[in-house]
Every structure is written in structure tokens, then in C-alpha cells.
Specification:
Largest sheet of chain A: 2 strands, antiparallel
Helix content of chain B: over 70%
Distance between the termini of chain B: 6 Å
Structural class of chain A: mainly alpha
Largest interface: A-B, 41 and 44 residues
Strand order of the largest sheet of chain A: 1-2
Largest sheet of chain B: none
Radius of gyration of chain B: 25 Å
Strand content of chain A: under 5%
Shape of chain B: globular
Oligomer: heterodimer
Strand content of chain B: under 5%
Helix content of chain A: 55-70%
């Protein structure tokens, strides 16, 4: 018996790689995308660390105001005798200097990391939920008729309507009319950006719904919602992954643009966007207040964009052939 | 063909009605009233507020307000809450300011993106390709206002020219040459800033389109015939790669309204985007709704034009 098994194993083909393993090795070849992937992982760890440190350790508190320590340039050691010892910055040095209220910019950037990233991730989460849900329903139930319109027509016309709104203007209108809160910003950015995802998912579903594994699932009387979300969505995930990565990048940029107009995340919460737009008032006296958050946003958004582009290339069999 | 266009226009009008209803609902259901903008003003008595609310139909139910809005919009009677000026006149005045900005930005975009994209595609994986790819990603990733501030400081320091607003204050008496030079400086930098993001995106599109075309059989045939390389690329290749961009031209039209809020705010350029921003701050519902409506009309017009153009330039598409 055991002899037969080993024989069978020896005869079998080498274990086929899963689609993600295969694509992963393609992504690895794109050095810039791979480097940005690790950069983002590092950033994520930093955001978690920052969240814990700023919440539980007093010296990391980004809200500590030291009025005698205004506008210190980066890398100034802490030497003040007026400010009490327990308000001293991290490691006794202002890595990124201080701002107009003497707050430690390093601690604020650390806090901003988790806030900015969570704005990006929650907005993208909402975008994916709505997009996958509507796209999936439009793709799966496309032929079903409600009254005289098909489900597909109904949902895709709604997508068309949403695409007609000038997005940034709409976001601005809603954010300005609603009471300012970080959750409103996340929700509004998410609810105005799901149309692309819905279109991708629907397109994938149109080809998936006639395939054998869906027919097999249906023949076993698996409930339809389970077929859609457990069997079909994982097969349509590739373009969604790409648009999610790019979506985080654009959500961070939108938040900083809203901050510039004064409708972003309100103080005392720090995000990269509002540190940048506060800092621009002191561009000549304290250039680091503008350059540190500006360059951080540039690097992080660039990393998300490069990573998304790398994923797009890795998941596109057509592009693979031409290389 | 005529049938197709008529049916398309019909569909778009239905969409437009739905869009206007939704935007009306969003603006009116959101908290915050026009009458609450200045609550601390002691001269605003409750009876004044009631009079104003009655004058602007703010106490009517939503659907009546919508009908009033549509009637006033199409008879041209629609008045701004803020200063009681006709809305269409206000928008038209600002539109004329935005137009040169938009035209120059579009011109810069298309003139830069095509050469960059084409040469990046032809010399694939060269230093030029790699660096333009990286630079265009960097330009997409940088917050627009951060970049604008850097450029403003650079311009003012290096060339010593003021760039904010539409013209320098106090130059009215100067000679024509000075005035026009001043105008051009003031116009160039904001349009350049407006163009940068779209140039980066468009050059990437051009590159990928050209890459698709470069490997086609007809390109090989053209080379095999012994045609000069320039003719192969620009006559056989580019013509086929251009097809999607003819349609993209229609899609840039809506950028007139929504795309320039930030840039106009930075450069204090009195354009449509800024009008919208001021209207939002003042809860000036008629202006917000009309701008939204015009933006939707422009989007639908743009897609209609691009559909028709596609059919005109691509003989494979039939109705």
C-alpha cells in the first residue's frame, strides 16, 4: 500500500504553484514594486507602533505643547530648563524639530502615520465593499428582469450616474455640509470611488458565471450569496487588488487636498495632510514643517502607486508575454 | 447613425434628470442651512430669517423646491442666495476666466504627453523610459498644492515675477507689452500646475498604447517592405495607437469645472472652481446645484462626443 503511494507520488507532476505564488514571483522581478512593497510593510509596522507609543507613553504624546520651544529646527537636542523634564521629547532630541506650538513634529508624524493610513484603508474598504457587492450582483443576476429593466441595466446606469458627478467637488460639498469628523471623510471618499471596482468585478463575473465550477456549485444547491461571495469573488480578485492599492494612494492625496482647503481631519488629530497644510503658513520661517510631511506623502503615495502598478503588471498575462 | 445619436441623447437626458434629483437631495438633506451661516449677526432677527426663507422657497417640501429650481434654471431667473445675482450670469463670468487656464493646460498636456510617451515606448527599458516612468509616478503622487508652493517660491526667487492672481496690481498704466507679458506669466504657471498631473497620466497611456501597437503584424510588414523607421512608427504605428485618444479628448471637457478647485484657490484665480468653493462655504444652494448640473451636462456631452468620434474614426464600428 505504502509502496503504491510513493510510486504515485513519484509519477505525479510537480505540485503546481498557486496563482498567487506564481504572480508573486513575477512581482518580485519588478524591483521597484518589490522595494515599495517592503517599504509599505515597514510603514504599516511603524503605524501600529506609533499608535501604541503615542497612546501609552507620555513622552511620545504629540499633543504636548511647549511654548518656549517653538520652531526648533530638526535634530535639536532638548536643553530647555523652562520646560519640565517629563515633557522632554523622545530620546531627548527633536528629530523633526518643533512646530508653532512647540509640539514635537516627530511624534505628530508618528501619530499621523496611523491616522492617514487608516483614512486610506477604511475608505478603500468601503469602496471595495460597495464595489464588489454591486458589481457582483450586476454580474451574477444580470439577466434577471425587474419590471422592464434588467438588474444589470439598473446597477450600471447607477454607476454611470455616479461617474457624472465631479468627484472632488462632490466630496467637498458633502464634507463641508456635514459636521467635520474623520469618519465622514473616510465614508465620503469611499462612497465616491467604488465605481471602477464595480465595473471590474462585473466584467469578471460576466465571464465567470458560465464556467463549470459555478454550474457545479449551483448543482449542489449552494445558496446564491455563497456562490457569489465565496466561489466567484476570489476568482475576480486580481483587478480589485490593483484598484485597491491605487485607491489607498488617491485617498491619502484626497485627504491632504481636503486638509488644504480646511475640511480635512480636524485638530487635535494629526494627519500628514493637516500637518502639511498647517506648516505651509510658516514656509519661510520653518521650512521643515512643510517639507517633512510633503516628502513623506510623496514617498508613501509613490510606494502605493508603484506597488499597484507592479501588481497590475504581474496579473496581466498579456504584458507578461511582451517582456 | 442619426437613430443611434438620438437614442443616446434620450438616454442621457434621463440620466441628467436622475443626477439633478440626487444632487438636489444630497445638498438639501445635509445639515446646515443657508440662514445659519451667520448666526451671530445681531441684525438678523427671526422674522428676517423667516422672510428670507419664504423668498427662497426654503419652507416648501423638497419636491416643490426641486420644481422651482428647474423652472428658474430654464427661465434664467435663478438667483444666488448670497447676493441675489442671476446664477447663470455669475457662472458665465467665471467660466470665461477659467477657459484660458483650461485651454492652455490641455495644450501643454497634449503637447508634452505624446512625444514623451512615444519615445518612452520606442526605447523601451532605456534610461529615458525608466526615468520618465518614475518621474510621472512621482508627479502623480505629490500633493498638488505642495508642488505648487515649491514652484511659486522657485519662480519668484529665480525670475522675480509675481504669479498670484490674474495680473499684478498697479500695472494698469503700464505699456501694452508689459501688461501682456504680465498676463502671460500669471497664466502660465497655474496652467502648468494644472497640466502636470494629467500629463503624467496621459504619457503613461500613450506609452502603453504604443507598446501594444509596436508588436503588431502590420508593423513587421511595414518594416519588411523596407519603409524608413520614422514612417513605420509615425504613420503606421501612431495612427493606430491614436484611436483611444480621440475619444479621450471628449472626456477632458468636464475638467473645466471640477478639476481646478485647488489650483484656482492657490493662485487666487477667479474661476469656476473657486466660485464653487465659495458657494459651498456660503451654503449657496442654487450655485452649487447649477454647477453640479453643468458638470454633469459636460460629462454626458463629453462621452457622447467621444462615442460619435469613435464611430467616425474607426470604420469597424457600425450601428
Amino acid at each position: 500500500m505504502s509502496n503504491l503511494e510513493t510510486n504515485l507520488e513519484a509519477d505525479a507532476l510537480p505540485p503546481s504553484k498557486g496563482i498567487f505564488q506564481e504572480r508573486w514571483s513575477i512581482l518580485k522581478r519588478n524591483r521597484m514594486a518589490y522595494a515599495s512593497y517592503w517599504f509599505l510593510m515597514l510603514l504599516l509596522a511603524l503605524a501600529f507602533l506609533g499608535k501604541i507609543l503615542t497612546n501609552y507613553i507620555v513622552v511620545f504624546d504629540p499633543k504636548t505643547v511647549r511654548l518656549s520651544e517653538k520652531f526648533l529646527p530638526p535634530l535639536t537636542p532638548f536643553t530647555s530648563t523652562i520646560t519640565p523634564k517629563e515633557d522632554a521629547p523622545t530620546f531627548g532630541i527633536y528629530f523633526f524639530g518643533t512646530d508653532e506650538l512647540g509640539r514635537d513634529v516627530f511624534a505628530r508624524m508618528l501619530e499621523g502615520t496611523s491616522v492617514s493610513l487608516s483614512v486610506g484603508f477604511v475608505a478603500v474598504g468601503i469602496m471595495l465593499t460597495v464595489g464588489i457587492f454591486l458589481g457582483g450582483i450586476a454580474g451574477y443576476y444580470g439577466r434577471k428582469k425587474l419590471w422592464f429593466l434588467t438588474v444589470d441595466t439598473l446597477i450600471m446606469r447607477f454607476v454611470d450616474i455616479m461617474l457624472c458627478f465631479p468627484t472632488f467637488f462632490l466630496i467637498l460639498t458633502v464634507v463641508a455640509l456635514l459636521p467635520p469628523s474623520i469618519y465622514n471623510i473616510m465614508i465620503v471618499i469611499g462612497l465616491t470611488s467604488w465605481m471602477g471596482t464595480a465595473r471590474f468585478v462585473r466584467a469578471e463575473f460576466l465571464s465567470l458565471r458560465d464556467q463549470d465550477f459555478v454550474a457545479a456549485a449551483r448543482s449542489q444547491a449552494i445558496p446564491e450569496w455563497r456562490i457569489i461571495f465565496v466561489h466567484m469573488v476570489p476568482n475576480a480578485i486580481a483587478p480589485v487588488l490593483v484598484s485597491a492599492t491605487l485607491g489607498v494612494a488617491s485617498a491619502i492625496l484626497t485627504e491632504s487636498a481636503l486638509s488644504f482647503l480646511g475640511f480635512g481631519v480636524q485638530p487635535p488629530d494629526a494627519t500628514w495632510g493637516n500637518i502639511l497644510s498647517d506648516g505651509k503658513n510658516f514656509l519661510f520661517d520653518a521650512p521643515w514643517l512643510t517639507f517633512i510631511p510633503g516628502i513623506t506623502i510623496l514617498m508613501v503615495v509613490l510606494a502605493f502607486n508603484l506597488c499597484g502598478e507592479g501588481l497590475r503588471e504581474a496579473f496581466n498575462p498579456k504584458l507578461k508575454q511582451t517582456t | 447613425m442619426v437613430n443611434f445619436i438620438l437614442r443616446n441623447i434620450g438616454q442621457r437626458i434621463i440620466l441628467l434628470v436622475l443626477i439633478s434629483i440626487i444632487s438636489h437631495a444630497i445638498v438639501h438633506l445635509a445639515p446646515g442651512e443657508p440662514a445659519l451661516v451667520d448666526p451671530s449677526n445681531p441684525r438678523m432677527k427671526p422674522e428676517d430669517i423667516a422672510r428670507i426663507r419664504a423668498a427662497f422657497h426654503l419652507d416648501e417640501p423638497m419636491h416643490t423646491q426641486y420644481i422651482y429650481w428647474v423652472r428658474d434654471l430654464f427661465t434664467g431667473e435663478l438667483k444666488s442666495f448670497k447676493d441675489n445675482q442671476p446664477v447663470l450670469g455669475k457662472i458665465w463670468e467665471r467660466f470665461l476666466n477659467s477657459l484660458p487656464l483650461f485651454l492652455i493646460a490641455t495644450l501643454i498636456t497634449w503637447c508634452l504627453a505624446f512625444p514623451i510617451g512615444i519615445s518612452a515606448a520606442i526605447n523601451r527599458d532605456s534610461t529615458f523610459d525608466r526615468s520618465t516612468t518614475f518621474i510621472s509616478f512621482a508627479l502623480i503622487s505629490i500633493p498638488g498644492f505642495f508642488l505648487s508652493y515649491l514652484v511659486i517660491i522657485f519662480m519668484v526667487d529665480t525670475f522675480n515675477v509675481p504669479v498670484l492672481g490674474r495680473q499684478t496690481f498697479g500695472l494698469e498704466g503700464a505699456s501694452f507689452l508689459f501688461q501682456s507679458m504680465d498676463r502671460i506669466w500669471h497664466l502660465t504657471i497655474p496652467s502648468l500646475m494644472l497640466a502636470i498631473g494629467s500629463t503624467a497620466v496621459l504619457s503613461r497611456y500613450v506609452r502603453s498604447q504604443m507598446l501594444e501597437v509596436v508588436h503588431q503584424d502590420y508593423m513587421r510588414t511595414a518594416r519588411a517592405k523596407g519603409l524608413p523607421e520614422d514612417q513605420v512608427i509615425y504613420k503606421h504605428g501612431l495612427r493606430n495607437a491614436l484611436l483611444p485618444f480621440i475619444t479621450m479628448f471628449g472626456l477632458t471637457i468636464p475638467g473645466l469645472i471640477g478639476g481646478s478647485v485647488i489650483i484656482e484657490q492657490i493662485f487666487s484665480w477667479p474661476g469656476v472652481g473657486r466660485l464653487g468653493f465659495e458657494a459651498i462655504l456660503a451654503r449657496d444652494f442654487p450655485v452649487i446645484l447649477t454647477l453640479n448640473f453643468i458638470a454633469a451636462v459636460l460629462v454626458l456631452l463629453g462621452t457622447l462626443i467621444s462615442d460619435i468620434l469613435y464611430a467616425v474614426v474607426d470604420p469597424r464600428i457600425k450601428f
